[in-house]
Amino acid sequence: MEDKVNNSYDSSAIQVLEGLEAVRKRPGMYIGSTSSKGLHHLVWEIVDNAIDEALAGYCTHIEVTINKDNSITVKDDGRGIPVDIHPKTGKSTVETVYTVLHAGGKFGGGGYKVSGGLHGVGASVVNALSDWLEVKVYKNGKVYYQRYQTGGHPVEDLKVIDSCDVNRTGTTVTFKPDDQIFTETTVYDYDVLKTRLRELAFLNRGLRITLYDDREEPKKDTFCYEGGIREYVEMLNKSKTPIHNTIIDVTGVMDDISLEVALQYNESYNSSIYSFVNNITTPEGGTHEEGVRRALTRVLNKYAVANNYLKDKDSPLTGDDVKEGLTMIISIKHPNPQFEGQTKTKLGNSEVRGIADKIFSEAFERFLLEHPDEAKIIVEKAIVASRARVAAKKAREITRRKGDLDITNFYGKLSDCKSKDASISEIFLVEGDSAGGSAIKGRDSMTQAILPLRGKILNVEKARLDRALSNEEIRTIITAFGTGIGEEFDLSKLRYNKIIIMTDADVDGSHIRVLLLTLFYRFFKPIVEAGHVYAAQPPLFVIKHGKTIKYVLNEQERDEYLKTLAPNTKYEIARMKGLGEMDAEELNETTMDINKRVLRQITIDDAVAADEVFSQLMGEEVAPRREFIENNATYVGNLDI
């Protein structure tokens, strides 16, 4: 008879986690994960506290330093955390902030009118997940200090360790992440920190943020933008060709809610619209974005009709028409934002929609009236986009799947898998008919579908939707995926759990891979965000010794493997053939067998940075592309987007 679980469900079965133990027990609940992303999240929590001081009007300079031992120091010149005894805890307010969850100045009482750190858990969570943390507060002509160890335990009470200029105020925090929590890595990525800190500087006009790296190769970057998000748009459009000179900059305040919008149109056919609430990115938009976009469409339609660009018989411009080629940043500061879900990805405050609409529409309408030449350029681009949309609608009809027989025989290309269970099915996009033939013979036909690609697909960064949909290869891909595109896109209809790009490890193969990633990023971005896109990693060398055959991905792996062989071992090294030259057995053995292959998942950790990379690499402008290649030449073949 099986042993049963103890049925005595009484008080002894209820576990009480004291202090910060809950954070260490379930760190993912507080910082998302304990991967590299969670590691960097610790920095954002402390920086957000300094940013809140800037939003309150007290902090002008934030310094972030990666120290030699990979600890982090965040220094600000804000008011400094209060040092008096907190009435509820009986401890110093500094210790309360760093050891008690949900203790902070963001819950009322006049500490902060607007705040990005909404839940007041930032400082204490960082403390809980650190091997040690030290805080210094400059206040009242004194330097106050406290140290915490092993998950947030105070070594001693807050004490005065020095004196300082009576006018100096601020907080300096240094912490070292606990490698018992962050088992994957505790090494900080300078570029990840740089990208986010630059973004924060754009979003907080005039705030100076300096990043230092004191490790083996010292680095320093300082960001300060008096133009705020207007300069953000200018940077995003650097690798594109603007169609009008003026970056439209809108600011306004209503009911204690402040709105900033900056926008400029360019010659591309894709939009780059990013929205923020209290410096928090809202990738799913929300009421602030809805209000601005609604006003943009209405005002442009009104102007187009009033100036006879649109006739009575013409259909009105849609939201898709007016966003073609648009780069826009929307940033609001709200005293009490309500987000949909714990991930803070979408703003839900209903009152913001009308406020954003009113502030933006009045300013944008005034701009169009005062700049008729630029207004004409913007309206005409939207009208051309409208005509292309009608053409694209007709082309889209071809890509709609009507049944299994239609898709299986679509252009005679797709060799579908037998399984209809998307969770176990995968599709290989294979470079060339020859490799496609071998892949079809070497696959597991139950779960693996093969779609050979003939040559290089259209660069959608330089093509409008109607032209893209007239491209046979792109129509085939859209039909095979089953999700549709644009307004019809439905991720739940994706027919494959893994979409695997399989190209040669040469320049042409890399180009095809980038073209496909550009297509996915522009047309199927949710598929990439959900982690369904992979790049196959065919081996570069095969090493034979005795009866052993070892495939290795690159020179480094080859050299590492050779070091493991016994002295005087005779071996042969051969460079692998291209995919098209492999027979079915070789292709299965090296690249397709789920038990032996190596796949690299394609991720989008930062949508703005990814957008910038695609614009630089695939856009019309040559100079940004050359600059990107020169700066990243050493990373070719190992670039996650």
List the helices and strands and how they pair.
Elements: H1 21-25, H2 28-31, H3 36-55, E1 61-66, E2 72-76, H4 93-99, H5 122-128, E3 130-139, E4 142-149, E5 153-154, E6 159-163, E7 170-177, H6 190-203, E8 208-213, E9 219-223, H7 229-236, E10 248-254, E11 257-265, E12 272-277, E13 280-281, H8 287-306, H9 319-323, E14 326-333, H10 350-370, H11 372-399, H12 404-408, E15 426-431, H13 433-442, E16 448-453, H14 465-469, H15 472-481, E17 498-502, H16 507-523, H17 525-529, E18 533-536, E19 541-545, E20 548-552, H18 555-563, E21 572-575, H19 584-592, E22 599-601, H20 607-618, H21 622-632
Parallel strand pairs: 1-8, 12-14, 15-16, 15-17, 17-18
Antiparallel strand pairs: 1-2, 2-7, 3-4, 3-7, 4-5, 4-6, 8-9, 10-11, 11-14, 12-13, 18-22, 19-20, 19-21
Helix pairs in contact: 3-5, 8-10, 13-19, 20-21
Find the count of extended strands (DSSP E, 2+ residues).
22
What Rg do the Cα atoms give? 28 Å
The helicity comes to 25-40%
Percentage beta strand: 15-25%
The name of the CATH architecture of the largest domain is 2-Layer Sandwich
Name of the CATH class of the largest domain:
Alpha Beta
- CATH fold-level assignment of the largest domain: Heat Shock Protein 90
